[in-house]
Amino acid sequence: MRFLVTGKYVETGALLPPEHLGPLAQNVILPSLQTLAKWEQEGKIKGGVLAGERAGVFMVEADSHEALGDLLASLPFWGIVKWHVTPLQSWASAVDRDRAAFQRATAPR
Fold first, then answer.
1. Model pTM score
2. Are 82 and 22 in contact (CB under 8 A)?
């Protein structure tokens, strides 16, 4: 199954004291971004960070919704990112679907 995944950083703003920002970046954000870069190098995902934003998007193949959930939960920043997941239909299946619908619509009655 193919999915489009969008992740957007949840603003913590003034909730975090400044001394926690460095460890958060070092121990959570950078390792997550490094993992995503590794997955892209390995061909598991294709995507990137939205220019100028603390958000990103990628496409991924996963065996199931649960497998995708496990993959996302393995990222250190899983809990501070709001995820939006969209299942995708293949182009070929859309061709088949639309061809069948067109044939039904134009068949003599």
1. 0.84
2. no
Nearest in space to 80 (alpha carbons), one of 1, 20, 2, 4: 20
Q: Give me the number of domains the chain comprises.
A: 1
| Partner residues linked to 86 by β-bridges | 4
Domain span holding position 32: 2-106
d(CA 45, CA 75): 14
Residue 31's domain is classified under what CATH number?
3.30.70.1060
pLDDT band at residue 25 under the 50/70/90 scheme: confident
Nearest Cα residue to 32 out of 40, 68, 62? 40
